[in-house]
Amino acid sequence: MIEKKEKYSDLINSLPNPGLGLGLRSKHFNYILDHSPAVDWFEVISENFMDSGGRPRDVLKQIAARYPVVMHGVSLSIGSTDPLNKEYLTKLKQLAAEVKPLWVSDHLCWTGINSLNTHDLLPVVLNEESLKNVCLRINEVQDFLQRPLVFENPSTYLTFKHSTIPEYDFLRYMAEETGCGLLLDVNNVYVSAFNNDFDPVHYIHQLPHHRIVQMHIAGHQHCGTHIIDTHDRQVVQDVWRLFALAWRLTGGVATLLEWDSNIPDFEAYHTELLKAKQHMSGILNQESGPEKLEYNNDAISNPVNFLVNDIVVN
């Protein structure tokens, strides 16, 4: 087991930094195929293609032939106590063999129980018992897929009384025990910090930066008393500031902009991503002042059926 952990850890440490990427969304298929825009890489939602054939799968093959691709899942349910879904894992492995992604990622969460999918990314109680359960499941999945996995910190809206381990330490122990990598969603840190009243800067400082292979940035809905992770608008300045900090601490890793509702045309989506370059160099981080917040309660979160688009539904 130690040899496998070290092997997976070495593979994580050898992963490349492909640059600035975008989430692959069906409304942009034709634009990408016709114009081959200068995007460094694309992230695909694994479940959008695992059960689909026809044009979506053909488009994915064409894009994977032109660009580096990363597979990002929303239904692995690594934090569940249900048995692992071998049918799901088999389809995931088959898709990875076909697409040849740089890496495969999912979330530190659970999505259902008794074989029922809640279609949401549900928070895990963070204690020694759940850590052991999660690590055992990660080991099993990595051995099945024969590759290390990368796990994302979720956005959360509550803290369990039974949680005894800070999330940043839970992620660190996960990586140490299994050799897996980490995906730092900077917007999720900001959302969770506001909702659970902790310091996002302290959180980012405490992470094992050498285990982070990718970052996510995204927009959210601020409701005044709480924030909802909506992925439906531009990134706010406070999240860009956290991104600049994380960029410095990690030494720079692959970064992707998520946009899953009210998706703009491709050029506007790409333009928002390219703002990252100014924050990577620290220009906007130094020049921008305090941000005026606008509150709106008309928002929904990002459940799985919000991320998995009509490719699968139809």
UniProtKB/TrEMBL annotation:
Instruction: Give the originating organism.
Output: Mucilaginibacter xinganensis
Q: What is the lineage of its organism?
A: Bacteria, Pseudomonadati, Bacteroidota, Sphingobacteriia, Sphingobacteriales
The record's Gene3D superfamilies line, in alphabetical order, gives: Divalent-metal-dependent TIM barrel enzymes (3.20.20.150)
In terms of InterPro entries, this protein maps to: MbnB/TglH/ChrH (IPR007801), Xyl_isomerase-like_sf (IPR036237)
Name of the protein in its database record: Uncharacterized protein
**PANTHER family recorded:** UPF0276 PROTEIN HI_1600
Specify the superkingdom.
Answer: Bacteria
